[in-house]
């Protein structure tokens, strides 16, 4: 059994893993009559060690694999040229991906298998034994380290000159603080609470289809149907289109008026069984996009909160707590659905300053 | 590592190389005279690495990270981390003319207009998924074999931080294409952070540069994804490996192996060949996955829009446990009071998962305190020989797995035609009760396996040979194990519970009581390794 170069020189007694007599620490049971370690088993020879034919075969396999790897690389380059992407032909992307990928996979796998086979079949597999030493430094080293710190302390007066030391600590603590201030610039100089409390909806804004922006007439909303709605004019915004949409998205549904259990104060927020609710989940803000017509339930596909449209979208299942905010709607003189006002509460996920 | 001998090394190397001559020798000499690299070769070249399949898990993680770096660098040359609106004008016809961010458009260009671009994207994504998975499995290996014990506790913590960073890398990368799915992921992050009391609103405001989604987040995540996080990961991987060198690798129990030695393949040449070859194998397998399996087809999702979402959407696998925790929280946990809104439906998952991973991080210190064992451990435990630790691990895995499976609650409901509510309630029960069941079962299985080991050591293994005795009785002949095999079955430490003893002032502190209680919990049920006396007795029984 071969020993490595640096083994066995400064052999310190590391603690035994197995109850030798010198294991006083902790709660390990000291076994006096433990079975003794039998030492390393005899080395088993491989077929390539004893059979020269097998040895030559392994050698052949290894270099063949390396040649195969070269073929794979060349194939990948050739595939790059032979299978260009043709914008007219969607299938060309697939062929390009497939053949470059096949070439590279072949190159890598043949190379990998070849090297590993070389190692396992041909290189010496005699187990090498290395000695371990305790991780802690030797007593002399540690003493010298302590001594160095003492000298440094003496020469600098770090421990003695407390005013210098403490003011240094103060300065070191203070100097990163400006960075904290700098990061204020990550957000604009507006009040987030103000922004979160208002949407694009205001009195008279027409309800429009998402994404076309076509205004919706009340007569077009048939019984049982559901519309994905945005405020009219959203599509024409120059800036902040997505930010506004993330707050203003609405679901419009028509139920039988007798199916709606409306609170007295919200009686006039709907129109002939047509109700509009914020589409943004009150849990963490996913779009509550799935409407089950038969039960009048809305389902959030992200975390499965369910809202009952017939009962002002109160939560009937799932992690959300608050009902979806209702958008008060009416019909204008031309028969289009309009908002009576903005939402009366902030939409979307809860936040600290909400209430 | 013994690099301290470097002072004398160059001169000897010089003398030798002068003699042997040749181009290689001259080049080596040139480099060594300027770097004293011969000392590194001397110290590391024949360093020993033990052989076991489970030691490859960490290698898979390392190599997939290299693949991530390579493929990721390629992608940076084409990707535009900008959220400015453009009209898509690439080759993918269904999205032609659609308004989207430059990030999404450039990702589509990588997929449809850059030759090999789709391949590199898929290689990058698959490698990332494999990276996190390999780290997770590597951690499980380290945990269940007790490799985290002294002196490797700090390296466990470094590895743990790497696991967290890998998930952060995954999430930031997932968010970059600004497609519908990743935008919804960010939306969920936004909603979660808003649920943090007092500061949540401001954190999201600063993170997104204003209201969600804003036009900054992709650029900011990009800086994190390609600069800050990789730099920290590379540094920590380096440190992780330095510690592997300093500690030398652990080894499984085996004949001849002790706590004072390490047996295996030397770095040069055998380990380098196996490890280097294995890198290409890992790379090759990832390449095959990128070639044959589509991952994250953003062209099917479309650009981010806050309004639509498709049913059955899933995060990448490693985020699943967090998403599942959000789904499993019971309804109604949100209250107004004390000056603000308390979103316990978000805080409980956040704090709960925080505590869970904190427990994972500090477990080595907890166990060290309970056992009071201050020795270095370089020989691994077989999981059965540390029944309580193994059982705790099984409980943790079950907890994680239940949360993870819950992230697919909707898929489970639709695929198996069961109700959504039923799935959620079952998962809630599994999350709470599953770990207890797993703990109990794993512990009993460990003890049973230990008993089986004892049986084999004392009476041999079942040979399968049935013999009929003169009296007509049938017996199966048991063959004794040889001493090398036997050693694997008996090489473990036995611990007994800590006794409560009064301290110097005659008091028994609460801390001590707790420690003794925990120690009893850990070690009360235990099976001792077979001793020589027992073997002799068993031989006496037989003959």
Structural commentary:
The complex is a heterodimer of chains A (355) and B (543). With 355 residues, chain A is an alpha+beta fold. Chain A folds into 3 domains: 47-122; 139-185, no CATH class; 195-339, Rieske Iron-sulfur Protein. Chain A has helices spanning 47-50, 52-82, 91-122, 139-156, 162-174, 177-182, 192-197, 241-248; strands spanning 128-131, 207-209, 226-231, 250-254, 274-278, 290-292, 297-299, 306-308, 314-317, 326-327, 329-331, 337-339. In chain A, the strands form 3 sheets. In chain A, strands 2-3-4-5-10 form a 5-stranded antiparallel β-sheet. Chain B is globular, with a radius of gyration of 29 Å. Chain B has a two-stranded antiparallel ribbon. Chain B has a two-stranded antiparallel sheet with strand order 2-3. The two termini of chain B are 52 Å apart. Chain B has 3 domains: 1-48, no CATH class; 56-251 and 269-323, Cytochrome Bc1 Complex, Chain C; 382-543, no CATH class. In chain B, 62% of the residues lie in helices and 7% in strands. The chains are: A alpha+beta (355), B mainly alpha (543). β1 (128-131) of chain A pairs antiparallel with β4 (261-266) of chain B, so a sheet runs across the interface. Chain A: Residues 247-338 form the Rieske domain. Chain A: One of its GO terms (molecular function) is 2 iron, 2 sulfur cluster binding. Chain A: This is Cytochrome bc1 complex Rieske iron-sulfur subunit.
